[in-house]
Amino acid sequence: MNWKFWQKNNTEPKKKKTKSREWFDAVVFAVIAATVIRVFFIEAYTIPTGSMEKSLLIGDFLFVSKVNYGARIPMTPVAFPFAHHTMPVTGTKAYYDGIQWKYRRLPGMQDIKRNDVVVFNFPDGDTVALEAQDRDYYDMVRAVGKQAIQSQYTIVSRPVDKRENYIKRCIGISGDILSMSNGLVTINGKAEPMKNTGQIDYMVKFKTSDVNFQVFEEMGFVIDRDISALSQDTYNFVGTPVMMDKVKKLDFVASVNTRTAAPGAVEANVFPQDPNRKWNADNWGPIQVPKKGWTVKLDSVSMPLYRRAISTYEGNKVEKVAGGWLINGVKADSYTFKMDYFWMMGDNRHNSLDSRYWGFVPEDHIVGKALFIWMSYDTNGSFFSKIRWGRLFNGIH
Protein backbone atom coordinates (compact mmCIF):
# COMPACT_ATOMS: atom_id res chain seq x y z
CA MET A 1 0.00 0.00 0.00
CA ASN A 2 1.26 3.49 -0.84
CA TRP A 3 1.54 5.69 2.30
CA LYS A 4 3.15 8.66 0.61
CA PHE A 5 -0.01 10.74 0.64
CA TRP A 6 -0.11 10.30 4.43
CA GLN A 7 3.53 11.24 4.81
CA LYS A 8 2.99 14.34 2.74
CA ASN A 9 0.08 15.57 4.81
CA ASN A 10 1.82 14.65 8.04
CA THR A 11 5.02 16.51 7.26
CA GLU A 12 3.42 19.55 5.69
CA PRO A 13 4.16 22.56 7.94
CA LYS A 14 1.20 24.20 9.66
CA LYS A 15 0.28 27.65 8.56
CA LYS A 16 1.39 30.16 11.17
CA LYS A 17 -1.34 32.36 12.72
CA THR A 18 -1.18 36.04 11.97
CA LYS A 19 -0.71 38.49 14.85
CA SER A 20 -4.27 39.74 14.46
CA ARG A 21 -5.61 36.18 14.63
CA GLU A 22 -3.54 35.49 17.77
CA TRP A 23 -4.93 38.62 19.39
CA PHE A 24 -8.47 37.70 18.38
CA ASP A 25 -8.14 34.19 19.83
CA ALA A 26 -6.66 35.58 23.05
CA VAL A 27 -9.51 38.08 23.46
CA VAL A 28 -12.17 35.43 22.82
CA PHE A 29 -10.56 33.10 25.34
CA ALA A 30 -10.30 35.89 27.94
CA VAL A 31 -13.95 36.88 27.48
CA ILE A 32 -15.16 33.29 27.79
CA ALA A 33 -12.98 32.63 30.84
CA ALA A 34 -14.02 35.85 32.57
CA THR A 35 -17.70 35.16 31.83
CA VAL A 36 -17.48 31.66 33.30
CA ILE A 37 -15.77 33.02 36.42
CA ARG A 38 -18.30 35.80 37.03
CA VAL A 39 -21.34 33.60 36.32
CA PHE A 40 -20.32 30.53 38.31
CA PHE A 41 -17.66 31.59 40.82
CA ILE A 42 -17.12 35.20 41.83
CA GLU A 43 -18.05 38.68 40.63
CA ALA A 44 -17.16 42.24 41.55
CA TYR A 45 -19.80 44.73 42.68
CA THR A 46 -19.74 48.32 43.91
CA ILE A 47 -21.82 50.03 46.62
CA PRO A 48 -23.71 52.99 45.11
CA THR A 49 -25.85 54.09 48.11
CA GLY A 50 -25.61 54.48 51.87
CA SER A 51 -28.29 51.93 52.76
CA MET A 52 -25.75 49.54 54.35
CA GLU A 53 -23.74 52.04 56.39
CA LYS A 54 -21.91 51.41 58.71
CA SER A 55 -21.24 47.92 57.27
CA LEU A 56 -20.63 49.02 53.69
CA LEU A 57 -19.83 52.52 52.47
CA ILE A 58 -20.50 54.28 49.19
CA GLY A 59 -17.46 53.53 47.03
CA ASP A 60 -16.74 50.09 48.49
CA PHE A 61 -15.90 47.49 45.83
CA LEU A 62 -16.81 43.92 46.79
CA PHE A 63 -16.25 40.40 45.65
CA VAL A 64 -19.45 38.38 45.75
CA SER A 65 -19.38 34.58 45.81
CA LYS A 66 -21.68 32.63 43.51
CA VAL A 67 -20.44 29.36 45.04
CA ASN A 68 -21.71 29.75 48.62
CA TYR A 69 -25.42 29.56 47.79
CA GLY A 70 -24.90 27.72 44.50
CA ALA A 71 -24.41 29.47 41.17
CA ARG A 72 -27.61 30.34 39.34
CA ILE A 73 -27.69 29.07 35.76
CA PRO A 74 -28.24 32.08 33.46
CA MET A 75 -31.96 32.57 32.86
CA THR A 76 -31.33 34.98 29.98
CA PRO A 77 -28.45 33.21 28.19
CA VAL A 78 -28.06 35.53 25.21
CA ALA A 79 -26.46 38.74 26.48
CA PHE A 80 -23.55 41.06 25.79
CA PRO A 81 -20.51 40.12 27.95
CA PHE A 82 -19.88 42.25 31.06
CA ALA A 83 -23.03 44.37 30.57
CA HIS A 84 -25.86 43.75 33.01
CA HIS A 85 -29.03 45.09 31.40
CA THR A 86 -27.93 48.21 29.47
CA MET A 87 -25.13 48.82 26.98
CA PRO A 88 -22.63 51.34 28.44
CA VAL A 89 -22.38 53.68 25.43
CA THR A 90 -25.57 53.34 23.42
CA GLY A 91 -27.92 52.85 26.38
CA THR A 92 -29.74 50.09 24.52
CA LYS A 93 -30.75 46.70 25.89
CA ALA A 94 -27.75 44.44 26.51
CA TYR A 95 -29.59 41.11 26.27
CA TYR A 96 -32.03 39.18 24.10
CA ASP A 97 -35.08 38.06 26.08
CA GLY A 98 -36.53 35.95 23.28
CA ILE A 99 -34.77 32.94 24.83
CA GLN A 100 -35.52 32.29 28.51
CA TRP A 101 -34.37 29.30 30.57
CA LYS A 102 -36.22 28.22 33.68
CA TYR A 103 -34.67 28.80 37.08
CA ARG A 104 -31.97 26.32 38.07
CA ARG A 105 -29.17 26.56 40.61
CA LEU A 106 -26.05 24.45 41.13
CA PRO A 107 -25.54 22.89 44.57
CA GLY A 108 -24.14 25.38 47.08
CA MET A 109 -21.89 25.23 50.11
CA GLN A 110 -24.51 26.64 52.48
CA ASP A 111 -28.05 27.94 52.83
CA ILE A 112 -28.77 31.62 53.35
CA LYS A 113 -28.60 32.40 57.07
CA ARG A 114 -29.94 35.33 59.07
CA ASN A 115 -27.55 38.29 59.01
CA ASP A 116 -25.82 37.19 55.79
CA VAL A 117 -25.09 40.13 53.48
CA VAL A 118 -26.69 39.09 50.19
CA VAL A 119 -26.70 40.41 46.62
CA PHE A 120 -29.98 39.83 44.77
CA ASN A 121 -32.02 41.10 41.84
CA PHE A 122 -34.48 43.83 42.79
CA PRO A 123 -37.91 42.13 43.05
CA ASP A 124 -39.84 45.22 41.95
CA GLY A 125 -37.48 45.63 38.99
CA ASP A 126 -39.62 43.51 36.65
CA THR A 127 -41.06 46.79 35.32
CA VAL A 128 -38.92 49.91 34.85
CA ALA A 129 -39.41 53.49 33.66
CA LEU A 130 -36.27 53.95 31.57
CA GLU A 131 -35.99 57.69 32.20
CA ALA A 132 -36.26 57.17 35.99
CA GLN A 133 -34.50 53.87 36.66
CA ASP A 134 -33.45 54.91 40.17
CA ARG A 135 -37.12 54.99 41.25
CA ASP A 136 -39.47 52.10 42.01
CA TYR A 137 -41.98 51.91 39.14
CA TYR A 138 -44.76 50.67 41.42
CA ASP A 139 -44.22 53.54 43.87
CA MET A 140 -44.51 55.96 40.98
CA VAL A 141 -47.76 54.34 39.85
CA ARG A 142 -49.21 54.47 43.38
CA ALA A 143 -48.29 58.16 43.58
CA VAL A 144 -49.75 59.49 40.31
CA GLY A 145 -51.45 56.58 38.53
CA LYS A 146 -50.44 54.10 35.86
CA GLN A 147 -51.72 56.14 32.93
CA ALA A 148 -49.72 59.23 33.94
CA ILE A 149 -46.50 57.22 34.31
CA GLN A 150 -46.93 55.39 31.00
CA SER A 151 -47.61 58.64 29.17
CA GLN A 152 -44.51 60.30 30.60
CA TYR A 153 -41.93 57.49 30.53
CA THR A 154 -40.77 54.59 28.39
CA ILE A 155 -41.85 51.47 30.27
CA VAL A 156 -39.97 48.18 29.82
CA SER A 157 -40.04 44.79 31.50
CA ARG A 158 -36.92 42.86 32.51
CA PRO A 159 -36.29 39.16 33.15
CA VAL A 160 -35.29 38.10 36.67
CA ASP A 161 -31.52 37.95 36.16
CA LYS A 162 -31.43 41.32 34.35
CA ARG A 163 -33.10 43.30 37.12
CA GLU A 164 -31.05 45.77 39.13
CA ASN A 165 -28.63 44.30 41.69
CA TYR A 166 -29.30 45.17 45.35
CA ILE A 167 -27.30 44.33 48.46
CA LYS A 168 -28.90 44.03 51.92
CA ARG A 169 -28.70 41.99 55.08
CA CYS A 170 -30.96 38.94 55.36
CA ILE A 171 -33.14 39.55 58.41
CA GLY A 172 -35.62 36.70 57.94
CA ILE A 173 -35.32 33.32 56.23
CA SER A 174 -38.09 31.11 54.85
CA GLY A 175 -40.73 30.31 57.44
CA ASP A 176 -39.77 33.07 59.89
CA ILE A 177 -42.46 35.25 61.46
CA LEU A 178 -41.26 38.87 61.59
CA SER A 179 -42.50 42.09 63.11
CA MET A 180 -41.06 45.47 64.03
CA SER A 181 -42.02 47.78 66.89
CA ASN A 182 -40.43 51.19 67.48
CA GLY A 183 -37.53 50.21 65.24
CA LEU A 184 -36.84 46.89 66.99
CA VAL A 185 -37.20 43.70 64.93
CA THR A 186 -38.75 40.59 66.46
CA ILE A 187 -38.08 37.20 64.81
CA ASN A 188 -40.21 34.21 65.81
CA GLY A 189 -41.19 35.97 69.03
CA LYS A 190 -37.64 36.94 70.04
CA ALA A 191 -36.48 40.57 69.96
CA GLU A 192 -33.37 41.07 67.83
CA PRO A 193 -31.53 44.29 68.78
CA MET A 194 -29.44 45.86 66.04
CA LYS A 195 -25.88 44.64 65.76
CA ASN A 196 -22.94 47.02 65.97
CA THR A 197 -23.33 47.94 62.29
CA GLY A 198 -27.05 48.75 62.40
CA GLN A 199 -27.97 52.42 62.73
CA ILE A 200 -31.11 54.53 63.09
CA ASP A 201 -31.96 58.13 64.04
CA TYR A 202 -31.58 59.45 67.57
CA MET A 203 -32.59 62.76 69.12
CA VAL A 204 -29.74 64.15 71.25
CA LYS A 205 -30.37 67.06 73.61
CA PHE A 206 -27.36 68.98 74.92
CA LYS A 207 -27.09 70.82 78.23
CA THR A 208 -25.52 73.75 76.39
CA SER A 209 -25.54 75.16 72.87
CA ASP A 210 -21.75 75.54 72.97
CA VAL A 211 -20.67 72.09 71.77
CA ASN A 212 -17.35 71.00 70.28
CA PHE A 213 -18.43 68.62 67.51
CA GLN A 214 -14.87 67.44 66.95
CA VAL A 215 -15.44 64.85 69.68
CA PHE A 216 -18.15 63.20 67.55
CA GLU A 217 -15.83 62.90 64.55
CA GLU A 218 -13.45 60.96 66.76
CA MET A 219 -16.33 58.57 67.55
CA GLY A 220 -16.90 57.86 63.84
CA PHE A 221 -19.67 60.33 62.99
CA VAL A 222 -19.51 62.32 59.76
CA ILE A 223 -20.70 65.78 60.79
CA ASP A 224 -22.55 66.91 57.65
CA ARG A 225 -24.03 63.45 57.03
CA ASP A 226 -24.79 61.96 60.44
CA ILE A 227 -25.56 65.02 62.55
CA SER A 228 -28.12 67.75 61.82
CA ALA A 229 -29.65 70.49 63.96
CA LEU A 230 -33.28 70.29 65.13
CA SER A 231 -33.05 73.34 67.42
CA GLN A 232 -30.39 75.36 69.19
CA ASP A 233 -29.55 72.57 71.66
CA THR A 234 -31.15 69.50 70.04
CA TYR A 235 -29.72 67.47 67.15
CA ASN A 236 -30.58 64.44 65.07
CA PHE A 237 -27.85 61.80 65.12
CA VAL A 238 -27.62 58.77 62.84
CA GLY A 239 -25.55 56.13 64.56
CA THR A 240 -25.14 52.61 65.86
CA PRO A 241 -26.11 51.54 69.40
CA VAL A 242 -22.42 51.34 70.35
CA MET A 243 -21.72 54.85 69.08
CA MET A 244 -24.77 56.27 70.83
CA ASP A 245 -23.79 54.66 74.14
CA LYS A 246 -20.59 56.70 73.94
CA VAL A 247 -22.60 59.85 73.23
CA LYS A 248 -24.79 59.24 76.30
CA LYS A 249 -21.71 59.20 78.55
CA LEU A 250 -20.58 62.70 77.56
CA ASP A 251 -21.05 65.15 80.42
CA PHE A 252 -22.64 67.84 78.21
CA VAL A 253 -25.35 65.47 76.85
CA ALA A 254 -28.72 65.77 78.61
CA SER A 255 -30.59 62.93 76.87
CA VAL A 256 -30.47 60.48 73.96
CA ASN A 257 -33.66 58.94 72.55
CA THR A 258 -34.41 56.94 69.41
CA ARG A 259 -36.44 58.77 66.76
CA THR A 260 -38.92 56.33 65.28
CA ALA A 261 -42.36 56.71 63.78
CA ALA A 262 -45.31 56.31 66.14
CA PRO A 263 -47.27 53.03 65.98
CA GLY A 264 -50.34 53.51 63.81
CA ALA A 265 -48.83 56.41 61.84
CA VAL A 266 -49.51 55.21 58.32
CA GLU A 267 -46.71 55.22 55.74
CA ALA A 268 -48.57 54.53 52.51
CA ASN A 269 -45.69 52.99 50.55
CA VAL A 270 -44.78 50.41 53.23
CA PHE A 271 -45.40 46.80 52.16
CA PRO A 272 -48.00 45.49 51.47
CA GLN A 273 -49.56 48.94 50.80
CA ASP A 274 -52.78 47.68 52.40
CA PRO A 275 -55.14 50.38 53.77
CA ASN A 276 -56.30 47.94 56.45
CA ARG A 277 -52.79 47.74 57.89
CA LYS A 278 -51.69 50.88 59.74
CA TRP A 279 -47.98 50.24 59.27
CA ASN A 280 -44.84 52.30 58.85
CA ALA A 281 -41.13 51.56 58.43
CA ASP A 282 -40.60 51.30 62.22
CA ASN A 283 -43.81 49.48 63.14
CA TRP A 284 -45.19 46.59 61.07
CA GLY A 285 -46.08 42.93 61.13
CA PRO A 286 -46.43 40.17 61.97
CA ILE A 287 -45.50 38.77 58.55
CA GLN A 288 -44.66 35.13 57.82
CA VAL A 289 -41.97 34.69 55.17
CA PRO A 290 -43.13 32.06 52.61
CA LYS A 291 -41.32 28.74 52.56
CA LYS A 292 -41.27 26.12 49.81
CA GLY A 293 -44.08 23.67 50.54
CA TRP A 294 -45.89 26.04 52.95
CA THR A 295 -49.63 26.34 52.32
CA VAL A 296 -51.36 29.64 53.04
CA LYS A 297 -55.10 30.22 53.26
CA LEU A 298 -56.31 32.72 50.65
CA ASP A 299 -58.46 35.46 52.15
CA SER A 300 -58.65 39.23 52.54
CA VAL A 301 -56.00 39.13 55.29
CA SER A 302 -53.35 37.03 53.52
CA MET A 303 -53.73 38.08 49.90
CA PRO A 304 -52.32 41.62 50.25
CA LEU A 305 -49.15 39.97 51.60
CA TYR A 306 -48.79 37.08 49.19
CA ARG A 307 -50.62 37.93 45.96
CA ARG A 308 -47.53 39.32 44.19
CA ALA A 309 -45.46 36.29 45.19
CA ILE A 310 -48.14 33.91 43.90
CA SER A 311 -48.69 35.76 40.63
CA THR A 312 -45.50 37.58 39.60
CA TYR A 313 -42.78 35.48 41.23
CA GLU A 314 -44.37 32.04 40.83
CA GLY A 315 -46.07 32.74 37.48
CA ASN A 316 -49.74 32.15 38.25
CA LYS A 317 -52.77 34.01 36.98
CA VAL A 318 -54.61 35.28 40.06
CA GLU A 319 -58.13 36.70 39.87
CA LYS A 320 -60.53 37.98 42.52
CA VAL A 321 -64.07 36.71 42.00
CA ALA A 322 -67.25 36.75 44.03
CA GLY A 323 -66.77 34.51 47.01
CA GLY A 324 -63.06 33.84 46.60
CA TRP A 325 -60.07 33.58 44.26
CA LEU A 326 -59.18 31.90 40.98
CA ILE A 327 -55.64 30.65 40.39
CA ASN A 328 -55.03 29.79 36.74
CA GLY A 329 -58.80 29.71 36.24
CA VAL A 330 -59.48 27.27 39.07
CA LYS A 331 -61.18 28.32 42.30
CA ALA A 332 -58.77 28.04 45.22
CA ASP A 333 -58.98 28.71 48.94
CA SER A 334 -55.29 27.98 49.59
CA TYR A 335 -51.93 28.04 47.83
CA THR A 336 -48.72 26.05 48.34
CA PHE A 337 -45.51 27.95 47.57
CA LYS A 338 -42.99 26.52 45.12
CA MET A 339 -39.98 28.61 46.24
CA ASP A 340 -38.27 29.81 49.40
CA TYR A 341 -38.37 33.54 50.17
CA PHE A 342 -36.30 35.94 52.28
CA TRP A 343 -36.71 39.29 54.05
CA MET A 344 -33.89 41.77 53.38
CA MET A 345 -33.17 45.05 55.18
CA GLY A 346 -30.43 47.67 55.06
CA ASP A 347 -28.26 48.35 58.11
CA ASN A 348 -28.98 52.06 57.74
CA ARG A 349 -32.58 51.53 58.79
CA HIS A 350 -33.94 55.00 58.05
CA ASN A 351 -32.19 55.31 54.71
CA SER A 352 -32.83 52.01 52.96
CA LEU A 353 -35.22 50.84 50.26
CA ASP A 354 -35.72 47.24 51.35
CA SER A 355 -38.28 44.52 52.10
CA ARG A 356 -40.26 46.94 54.25
CA TYR A 357 -41.28 48.61 51.00
CA TRP A 358 -41.41 45.81 48.41
CA GLY A 359 -41.75 42.62 50.42
CA PHE A 360 -40.18 39.23 49.92
CA VAL A 361 -37.12 38.25 47.87
CA PRO A 362 -37.69 34.94 46.00
CA GLU A 363 -34.89 32.39 45.88
CA ASP A 364 -34.57 32.71 42.09
CA HIS A 365 -33.57 36.38 42.60
CA ILE A 366 -30.57 35.49 44.80
CA VAL A 367 -27.23 36.32 43.15
CA GLY A 368 -24.63 35.54 45.79
CA LYS A 369 -23.01 36.20 49.16
CA ALA A 370 -20.84 39.27 49.77
CA LEU A 371 -17.37 38.11 50.86
CA PHE A 372 -14.88 40.98 51.25
CA ILE A 373 -13.98 44.51 50.18
CA TRP A 374 -11.13 44.60 47.67
CA MET A 375 -11.13 48.37 47.14
CA SER A 376 -12.77 51.36 48.84
CA TYR A 377 -12.77 54.79 47.21
CA ASP A 378 -13.95 58.01 48.87
CA THR A 379 -14.82 60.61 46.23
CA ASN A 380 -14.94 63.32 48.92
CA GLY A 381 -11.47 62.52 50.23
CA SER A 382 -8.39 64.60 49.54
CA PHE A 383 -5.80 63.50 46.99
CA PHE A 384 -3.90 61.20 49.34
CA SER A 385 -6.92 59.91 51.26
CA LYS A 386 -9.32 58.98 48.48
CA ILE A 387 -8.52 55.30 49.02
CA ARG A 388 -9.76 54.04 52.39
CA TRP A 389 -6.71 51.90 53.06
CA GLY A 390 -8.09 50.52 56.32
CA ARG A 391 -11.06 48.90 54.53
CA LEU A 392 -9.09 47.00 51.88
CA PHE A 393 -9.58 43.23 52.07
CA ASN A 394 -11.89 43.50 55.07
CA GLY A 395 -14.31 40.60 55.33
CA ILE A 396 -18.06 41.30 55.38
CA HIS A 397 -19.78 40.04 58.50
Give an overview of the whole structure.
The strands form six sheets. Strands 1-2-22-3-6-20-21 form a seven-stranded antiparallel sheet. Strands 9-8-7-14 form a four-stranded antiparallel sheet, with no helix packed on it. The mean pLDDT is 91. It has a domain of 59 residues. With 397 residues, it is of the alpha+beta class. 19% of the residues lie in helices and 26% in strands. The protein is globular, with a radius of gyration of 26 Å. The longest helix is centred in the first third of the chain and has 22 residues.
Sum up the overall morphology in one term: globular
Number of helices: 9
Q: What can be said about the biggest beta sheet?
A: 7 strands, antiparallel
Radius of gyration: 26 Å
Strand content: 25-35%
The strand order across the widest sheet is: 1-2-22-3-6-20-21
Number of strands: 22
Mean pLDDT: 91
Please identify the structural class as seen in this structure.
alpha+beta
List unreliable stretches of 5+ residues. Answer: none
Helix fraction bin: 10-25%
Gap between N and C termini, in Å? 74 Å
Summarize this, please?
GO terms for molecular function: serine-type endopeptidase activity; signal peptidase activity. With 397 residues, the chain is an alpha+beta fold.
